[in-house]
Specification:
Layout: H1 15-24, H2 52-64, E1 71-77, H3 88-97, E2 100-106, H4 116-126, E3 130-132, H5 136-151, E4 169-171, E5 188-190
Parallel strand pairs: 1-2, 2-3
Antiparallel strand pairs: 4-5
Helix pairs in contact: 2-3, 3-4
């Protein structure tokens, strides 16, 4: 039996629905699965912590895989994963295969720890950004920054020299002539499988 995390709000542009979903979220509830709450997204096991990588993997492979156009996930997290079945690399691969950019608003409480390294790896590999937030004001500013970036993106295209449709990962590197500009881009893509 496959058990998935609760979806507090599906795709919507209804602000009130999103606000209700945000208010339903719980932070620092590591034993919720053990007390009969949601036992986790992949497999039929009980989770005793945060399954961040599982959530990213499922969001990309089951929700975003069939969506057309630009796709982005904005996550408010400490990036500490304590219960996923999939590894960090599998979550990144799911995002890359679905052309999904991950942005992380990193909230690290020194009392509970966090994983800034994992946050940066997720965002760097998918063309997103990690922004550390330490207050509600900074959180709102970070949302505004990400929102502005999502509205002002450019799309570049090219024809690869390797035309093999082998499903393998191809590395990309985008540079600008003016080193004062910073380019956010994913590190590569998966070739189609033919």
């Amino acid at each position: 039996m496959r058990i998935e995390p609760p979806v507090l709000s599906d795709f919507t542009d209804e602000r009130t629905q999103l606000e209700r979903a945000i208010h339903k979220t719980r932070i620092n509830a590591p034993d919720q699965g053990a007390r009969g709450g949601n036992p986790g997204p992949i497999g039929s096991r009980q989770i005793t912590g945060t399954a961040l990588y599982d959530a990213i993997y499922l969001a990309c492979s089951e929700k975003l895989a069939t969506e057309a156009g630009r796709k982005a996930i904005v996550i408010v997290t400490d990036a500490e994963d304590t219960g996923s079945k999939v590894r960090l690399e599998e979550a990144i691969e799911a995002a890359q295969r679905t052309d999904t950019v991950i942005h992380i608003l990193l909230v690290i409480d020194p009392r509970y720890g966090g994983n800034a390294g994992a946050a940066h790896k997720l965002t760097d590999e998918t063309g997103g950004r990690t922004i550390s937030v330490r207050s509600e004001k900074k959180l709102m500013e970070a949302f505004d920054e990400i929102s502005e970036e999502l509205r002002t993106q450019y799309t570049l295209g090219y024809y690869p020299s390797n035309a093999a449709q082998d499903g393998k990962f191809r590395k990309l590197k985008v540079e600008t002539a003016d080193k004062d500009f910073k380019v956010l881009t994913r590190k590569g893509y998966y070739a189609p499988k033919g």
